[in-house]
Amino acid sequence: MPMPPYRVLCSGCCDRLAQYKIASCWSDGVTQELKTYALSCTECLPAQLAGARAKKHACRLTAGESLECPGIYEMVRGTRDARLCRRSDLEVELSESPPA
Hints:
There is one protein chain. With 100 residues, the chain is an alpha+beta fold. It has one domain. Helices cover 23% and strands 25% of the residues. The protein is built from two helices and five strands, in the order ββαβββα. Strands 1, 2, 3, 4 and 5 form a five-stranded antiparallel sheet that branches.
């Protein structure tokens, strides 16, 4: 019997549905995956992205590992990470806007 769909909530301080995944491409030289920092609604996105960038900056890597800058990916139910659409437009917009 298939599992019923469940609600994916924002990992910020609200109970809204998450619309975005904030994640970085990580690799150890053999394996590659998205490292998830947060799931976010539109309202929490600026703060969540800033927090993810701070966490990435503090991350220590071992030899052979790589970790890109966190990006914003549009969440689509039933879609695997490798097929998520990256929202570079939102990343640029949030980088250019002054902090609230």
